[in-house]
């Protein structure tokens, strides 16, 4: 279709990048004749109207082509996922999602040369993000419709559109589904697992992010998100690899409803569904201790607490609910301030950091 779009416009109209509705209808006829009837549905009047037009009423062919490609990809993805849906209930279990991802690897430019020994681990890591965002109730089943509409699938498919040479190291690290990111996560877990038993204790997890997370936050993570082990005694509790992936996903996606929901359960010290000034004071006390140990200036905890209240502006002036954090658009920043001394430092130095970013852009 792309070749026909380019050839027909160049040959008949001398316009390679744009087409008006008359061109659109002509190309619809050519595509239907040369490719088949399946093309017809993409050339409806309503589809033409979806795209931005120039002053002459023309649309760019690239956005139209990308729309076709994405629609076909989603249709194929739905077919592939439905074939893997053993219960035929519209949901995928972890092993089914991993099988779907494994089938995509040979067709994704940045993944096809992955070492075979790492494929299984990669699929576990990649599948977990789908469940983090598409299985909010943690039932172990991700809705296929949600998966198809999620940003996760788009992020995974991006590995098909670009060759690895065209992607910067930063972009690879930021894409959870890149090989670079998966190896980083795996290496991180192995480095933390000092006793090499395949799980992380509270003491081991405290070394995450160079030990900048507070002790009370680590305790709350285990209270809310780590199941008790079936071995090692009734009170034994260590974090398995899947729980670690959820932990990392929440910290790397603090501004999303899913990430903030995970973190709010940890911040809600008494499980009441809201935070009080006493909760904020208790949570920030550990951040304050690390702040002072790092050689920084003295802080007044009450001032920070009041600043957080001003940032949130909760509906109830005496308590902060999850809905307040989500609606204030600063929930991720506030969570960072309460669990991570480095997160508080970034907030405290936000003006300097912003100025540095602007200077770097100007230099570029």
Characterization of this structure:
It is built from 20 helices and six strands. The protein has 364 residues and is mainly α. It has three domains: 59 residues, no CATH class; 95 residues, Recoverin, domain 1; 161 residues, EF-hand (Recoverin, domain 1, Orthogonal Bundle), CATH 1.10.238.10. The protein has a two-stranded antiparallel ribbon with strand order 1-2. The longest helix is centred in the N-terminal third of the chain and has 24 residues. GO terms for molecular function: calcium ion binding.
Report the helical percentage. 55-70%
Number of helices: 20
Question: How many beta-strand elements?
Answer: 6
Radius of gyration: 25 Å
Structural class label: mainly alpha
Task: Describe the largest sheet.
Answer: 2 strands, antiparallel
What is the fold-level CATH name, i.e. the topology of the largest domain? Recoverin, domain 1
Strand order in space, largest sheet: 1-2
Q: Write out the CATH superfamily name of the largest domain.
A: EF-hand
Sheet-strand content, in percent, reads: under 5%
Overall number of structural domains: 3
- CATH architecture of the largest domain, by name, is Orthogonal Bundle
Given this structure, which CATH class of the largest domain is correct?
Mainly Alpha
Order of helices and strands: HEHHEHEHHEHHHHHHHHEHHEHHHH
**Can you tell me the overall shape?**
globular
